[in-house]
Write a structure and sequence with these properties.
Chains A, B: It catalyses: (R)-lactate + 2 Fe(III)-[cytochrome c] = 2 Fe(II)-[cytochrome c] + pyruvate + 2 H(+). The structure is a homodimer of 542-residue chains. Chain A is of the alpha+beta class and 542 residues long. Chain A is built from 20 helices and 16 strands. The longest helix of chain A has 17 residues. The radius of gyration of chain A is 23 Å and the shape is globular.
């Protein structure tokens, strides 16, 4: 029986709801709303190559033949569904790997390989390189930009069967795990031993650590534990030609040459296939506190953040914000009560994680009192138990679902210097109002019903969502590339944490200079001269 | 008048002694002992090319002519000593840039350029690349491996005049500074505004932030704030051909393409010249505590570290160790009192930094009491004021000086998985005893008088020092490459934080596979096709 990503994802969804951690459900919720109920037959996902006819198949790449498949069966053995091929398996079994979970992208692969060892990955890639067969490395297939599914008939190489924990140094907290380990499984493994993973995201029950690293996943703990560029200590990778490389050491310090593993963090499978990762894991926190604040202006959101960094410093683990429209939408569509009495233009959710509950309670209470006294905030509440903490997180995490219940959505994951973060939302509203596209008393039938901003203030990460009556070319052209120009003008990034994949590759020029893109191409050529790794993505189409 | 690194270094030395921070003096002490007093004429530093005749000058490189110098004067203007050349300046003025501060390496450059702007750096490098003139980027010239001084007649491009702070985002703590800013100057600039630099090292009064990043400096705050790979957000660099590149954005999150700036962190000037850096700076801590522990075995050092990570977690900012021999040497050569009453085989120094003094006092006191009760440690003391904290740090920081007063030194900066860290010291002692080279009652005239281990447990960073009656070839061959083999067998790193430079390049193979070194060469070729940037270093000699 196949242990497909879908089965694992649904299993996790239930699990995520049952466990006490109030966060890490954003994507699970998204799954449950975007995946139609099992009783209704879902509409077919359109093929990516039909949707984007400009993405012509590269004729240099060979096509998979029965001889190739036989060779791959020799390499992997045909145990535990190591090879899934059109000759033997159903289209549905291949769809699991051809389609992304948002049902936006679909490839036409006829072959999925699920190696168990690094040596198998090496033999597979060596063979593919010799025969110029294009491949797509795939982890849990939970990406948001279409980066891990084929465009044409690229062979999928899945990490799911490479899922052993190789070691944990319990003195320094250094974990070495194979690429196919599920993030949540690793986190549970660590928690039993007093540690935790330094990253956390909604897809944790399905996503693979190899995919997390390949896509430089951000998520909910970045404010506290920093990015993967700091926590990933070393990596085992297989290059396009099958060379197995250890990049770096499972050590905190190593100054012997270029830190090549860093290039693989966020390379989205274009430089090689990550087969194992060593990562520095922090001790788990014994005390977690949550508070919600009501704030009058975005300037005061920033002031509250500045003060939180100073006064909560070492225990601050999340600083999220959302605007009043988000709160209205959540209340309209979901059975959620407003945690604060006063209505405010902006809300802030603060989480602290520390090693001493009494100390953290006191720090957070003092911080809140001072901010109320000094009128930096106009209302605030401290969760007194896990249920209240859960309820506060629930508001923040339900925004995406509430937006999707309001109608069609345009969604942007942007990174902007904090002081200018909300100006993006204001500018978008102003433009749409100018064009008569934003609904108001004077434009009661305009197609854009709401423009909302929320996100991770601590990371300068804005999620800009527009709810609409539906997609039209006119609307699309009113928003893009305008939104990317807004970001570019503020020296921001058009992709804060989701990556480039297929979706954002065409817009890379809004975040990178032509010289930088040229240097990226030189690096790509040095690592993958034949270009067989994850083609058609990451680089701007030419 | 030239504002030379030497003048700045001495000025800083006094400053470092006067200011209250008890750390950050290791290198200053080293300076004062290794630099002879001003009244005595120092012995001349031997030329590197005489010491290592195998380092033959690469005949592809052009030699500096008066026409070249005139062109460079056009580019930089001849203001504020932008150009220091053999035709105009004294040998002593050039020596400042030709010699490293340890007086181990000396180049023969006849030209030092000190540009003021990125555009000047660009014009200089474009010209050098066109004329195949080799260059050495140089910051504060405080490196420990001979990486920032010329070997032959490479042109020195110094960052010292590029020292403007470009911006500080006081909401998120993102600082953008030019490469020539002195680390301590930046730290003071930040402290006045409630932040601090996320790195701290002995050379802080002289070293430049560009050099820190180019050499991936580790230092004293790494345990708390992580490595530069996590804190450096973006970089402005000039490539060998003069192209100015912005690599990354001054943002916490940016997933748009390969993170090329990471390659420059630790590239030691071989890929391009860093001209500005954006770095995430933490809020400064309002409370700092220091404690010293006496421990019976290295196993208990590890247990104390494991417990400190769990119980002090978010406030732990240093966890240093040293062995009994270190304590004996410090007492023998320096006017220092032992902080603890009980003599122990190992000592641990713990520092915490947090936002609430009462909370931190309580956490550290409780932690110490428990460890004493459970007999993980056999003695311990908590500094009750700054003077006591200073005295405790003083023991740890005087080890290098005490070793140098004992005789000739062999020094190794190694990174090893924490559980096996002290085994390196034991193995070295055993080998030298076997060979009759370690002094003891049965070998009273043996040349190695002490083998000591100390360092940053929190980072897995061992400093292994051997004190000897003097350097001999026999002794050298008994130690090297044996010490590197010990490290290699434990999957460690032969350079934890000092880098490769000229000194460690020949031993790179002990930490990197031939495939990884080949991949490094491919990256080098992609960035610097003519190889003009910092030649003769970093890569193993062939």
């Amino acid at each position: 029986m196949l242990r497909t990503p879908l089965v694992r994802r649904l299993a996790n969804s239930a699990h995520a709801l049952a466990r006490p951690t109030p966060r890490a459900r954003t994507l699970s919720v998204a799954f449950s709303t975007s995946r139609p109920a099992a009783s209704k037959a879902p509409a077919a996902v359109p093929f990516t190559s039909d949707k984007f006819p400009e993405l012509v198949r590269d004729s240099r790449f060979g096509s998979v033949t029965p001889e190739h498949v036989a060779r791959f069966r020799d390499i992997t053995g045909d145990v535990d569904a190591a090879v899934i091929s059109a000759g033997t398996n159903t289209a549905q079994e291949l769809d699991v790997y051809n389609e992304d979970w948002m049902r936006k992208y679909k490839g036409r692969t006829t072959l999925v390989l699920r190696p168990k060892t690094t040596q198998e990955v090496s033999a597979i890639l060596r063979y593919c390189n010799e025969h110029t067969l294009a491949v797509v490395p795939q982890g849990g297939n939970t990406g948001l930009v279409g980066g891990s599914v084929p465009v044409h008939d690229e062979i999928v190489i899945s990490t799911v069967r490479m899922n052993a924990v190789r070691s944990l140094d319990e003195v320094s907290g250094i974990l070495t795990a194979e690429a196919g380990c599920v993030l949540e499984v690793l986190d549970l493994h660590l928690r039993e031993r007093g540690f935790c993973m330094p990253l956390d995201l909604g897809a944790k029950g399905s996503c693979n650590i190899g995919g997390n690293v390949a896509s430089n996943a951000g998520g909910l703990r970045l404010l506290r534990y920093g990015s993967l560029h700091g926590t990933v200590l070393s990596m085992e990778v297989v290059l396009a030609d099958g060379t197995i490389m250890e990049l770096g050491k499972p050590l905190r310090k190593d100054n012997t040459g270029y830190d090549l593993k860093q290039l693989f963090i966020g390379s989205e499978g274009t430089l090689g296939m990550i087969t194992a990762v060593s990562i520095l894991t922090p001790p788990k926190s014994s005390a977690v506190n949550v508070a919600m604040l009501g704030v009058k202006s975005f300037a005061e959101v920033q002031e509250a953040f500045r003060r939180a960094r100073l006064e909560l410093g070492e225990i601050l683990s999340a600083f999220e914000f959302f605007d009043r429209t988000c709160m209205d939408l959540v209340k309209r569509h979901l059975p959620i009560r407003e945690p604060l009495e006063t209505k405010s233009p902006f809300y802030v959710l603060i989480e602290t994680s520390g090693s001493n509950k009494d100390h953290d309670d006191e720090k957070l209470a003092t911080f809140l009192e001072r901010l109320l006294e000094e009128e930096v905030v106009q209302d605030g509440a401290l969760a007194s138990d896990t249920a209240q903490a859960h309820a506060m997180w629930n508001v923040r995490e339900s925004i995406t679902e509430a937006c999707s219940k309001e109608g069609g959505n345009f969604k942007y994951d942007l990174s902007v210097p904090v002081p200018q973060l909300y100006a993006i939302v204001d500018a978008m509203r102003a433009r749409l109002a100018d064009l008569g596209l934003l609904r108001s008393d004077s434009a009661p039938t305009a197609p854009v019903t709401n423009v909302v901003g929320f996100g991770h203030i601590g990371d300068g990460n804005l999620h800009l969502n527009l709810t609409t009556t539906g997609w039209t070319r006119e609307l699309n052209d009113a928003i893009e590339p305008f939104v990317y120009e807004l970001v570019q003008a503020r020296n921001g990034s058009i992709s804060a944490e989701h990556g480039l994949g297929l979706m954002k590759a065409p817009y890379l020029e809004y975040s990178k200079s032509p010289e930088a893109i040229e240097l990226m191409r030189r690096v790509k050529a040095a690592f993958d001269p034949k270009g067989i790794l994850n083609p058609y993505k990451y680089f701007p189409r030419q």
